[in-house]
Amino acid sequence: MRQMRPTITYSCIANCKVTSQLWSMFLKLTDNNFTMPEHTADLLSCWIRRGGSKSQKKWWRMIPACIWWTIWKERNGRSYENKTNSIQKVKEKSIVFFYFWCKLQDNVDLFFQTKNNLTAILNKMKNMPGIMSQMPPLPVFLNEELASSLLPSSAQLLALFSLNLL
Q1: What angle do CA 21, 26, 27 make, to 5 degrees?
Q2: Which domain of life does the UniProt lineage start with (predicted)?
């Protein structure tokens, strides 16, 4: 039996009633006014936060993806599982996704900073024969390329964790 897959267009992601309410909710929460552009590329190019901390700018950049992810999950629930959530439930899920992604991003950044710091320290120590001769050998040879290929990027971790949320 052939599976029917509904298609989604930009107008659904950007302009449907539920999506409009999510945009309004996030804009009110961040105390911003914004006019929705007609095209996705225009939206992403003008979605810039001026001022604020580095974390606030990262969080601001997550809002469009969070809204689209929420709408995509809701659409799939309606299309494939015959589940429909109230607008309030959709808003709650969107806030949960956003909170989770912000926390995950902070933790992923901390993890990669720690990994990079440890790698730098071990590399510096490797080049100091006086110190290294007094220490036991490292249990493994430090291979930065191998470590980078084995450890997923922060974007991959965000995608992986968000797939299993809710």
Answers
A1: 95
A2: Eukaryota
Look at residue 77 and tell me whether its pLDDT is greater than 80.
Answer: yes
Closest to 116 in 3D by CA, of 148, 163, 88: 148
Alpha helix (H) ranges present in 81-153? 87-126, 129-134, 144-150
Q: Which domain holds residue 83?
A: 10-163
Please count the CA atoms within 13 angstroms of the CA of 53 that sit on its side-chain side: 4
For the chain, counts of helices (H) and of strands (E): 8, 0
- Total structural domains within the chain: 1
Long-range contacts of 50-58 (CB under 8 A, 24+ apart): 55/102, 55/106, 58/102, 58/105
166, pLDDT greater than 60: no
CB 158 within 8 A of CB 104: yes
* Collapsed DSSP state (helix, strand, coil) of residue 50: coil
Q: What angle do CA 34, 95, 6 make, to 5 degrees?
A: 80
